[in-house]
Amino acid sequence: MPEKSRFSGKNLLEGKKGVVTGAGLGIGRQIAYTLAEQGCEVAVLDYKQELAKEAAGLINREFNCKKAFPVVGDVSSQSSLKKPFSEIERHFNGSIDIFVNNAGINHPARVEDLLDEKEAKAALRLINVNFLGTYWCAAFAYPLLLKGSDPIFIMMGSAASIGSEGQGIYSGTKAALRGLLGTLVKEWGATSEKQPVRVSLIEPDYIEETALRSQQYLEALAKSRRTTVDRIGNDAVAKAKVPLQREGKLIEIAEKVVMMALDTYSNGNVEILSGGKTVRV
């Protein structure tokens, strides 16, 4: 169950229209929930229809409203996004204000493992979802954001963008988002004919359990790092590496999204949510 934010009851995003991809579970569901909590209408986009419907239904029941509606689409395929974006455009009368590109997957593997055909296919899927999926969503969302109010496009990256043993492809896709961030900031700046669309990137590190920290993921990560699940999944060891001595919370990521949407001079920002673990000075 998603958490209420510290802004609960303030309706900071009243009248706004938002889209969250990968919103059926985990981080995406929490973000969609928090946007709706703050008065924003939300398109809950997920590639699984049942998850999109479940998340939208939960949000509407929780707030006794019709703030959320489900949309089904696979971000990894340009052609499969045409229908969901047409639905979003029609529902929101041609404009959106906040787009959160949260959809992402992981599949740990060492570089040499990719010589295996099955691993190579999994790697391509990672690229298609994590990087190209972001690119396709940006392309489809831009015309709608141009007609929004103080519009912003927020990408969900990872602190693994600086490198992570056994996760080379995943890290690469997340590092690529930094390059895309800089590109979009330049391409989506203000001109005499159009308003700017702001772009930001959030890079979480060690956070509470989501689908990406499942038992299956831990086993794959342990294999790719040539170690055991006990060592990989030891929360005490993981927390000891964080100056705040705890994992991040999904609600803290969602609150960051709200703050980015409200900070109308913020553009091109990379927000690393690691509790100080990845500090670079």
Fold and architecture overview:
The protein has helices at 26-37, 49-62, 82-91, 117-145, 168-187, 215-224, 229-232, 235-240, 250-262; strands spanning 17-21, 41-46, 68-72, 98-101, 152-156, 198-204, 269-273. With 281 residues, the protein is α/β, with parallel strands linked by helices. Strands 3-2-1-4-5-6-7 form a seven-stranded parallel β-sheet, sandwiched between helices. Helix 2 links the parallel strand 2 (41-46) and strand 3 (68-72). Helix 1 (26-37) packs across helix 9 (250-262) and helix 4 runs parallel beside helix 5. The protein is globular. The model has no long low-confidence stretch (mean pLDDT 89).
Just give the CATH class: Alpha Beta
Give the class from helix and strand content and strand pairing: alpha/beta
State Rg: 18 Å
Report the mean per-residue pLDDT as an integer. 89
Q: How would you characterize the largest beta sheet?
A: 7 strands, parallel
* CATH topology value: Rossmann fold
Report the strand count.
7
Provide the CATH superfamily: NAD(P)-binding Rossmann-like Domain
